[in-house]
Amino acid sequence: MPWVCWDAPGACSERSPLKLLSSDVPSLLFSLALILQGDMDPKTPLAGAQAHLRVLPAAAGVKLFTVKGGPHFLLFTAPDCFKAAVSAFVQQRRAPRAACSI
């Protein structure tokens, strides 16, 4: 379930995934998920990703992978970190580390 913005002052708050989630969301829906987030992203702040992670069911296998120094759109701005995280997640069903640096 990709999206383009977290809750941030003046940034896409009506489309925020935090508005779509509640405590009654089945854990099965999020049985395995990876959140990729750059810590220098001005459009989707790291705090939004962290808040989203706290809303997801505790039993779910949700991992936050932070790219240190990563701006927006990590596929193009941090391709090595993106590839490492996504490849490990798809092939091994886990994120390789909690963070990567560019």
Automatic annotation (TrEMBL):
Protein name as it appears in the record: Peptidase S33 tripeptidyl aminopeptidase-like C-terminal domain-containing protein
One Pfam family of this chain: Abhydrolase_4
Domain Peptidase S33 tripeptidyl aminopeptidase-like C-terminal, first and last residues per copy: 33-97
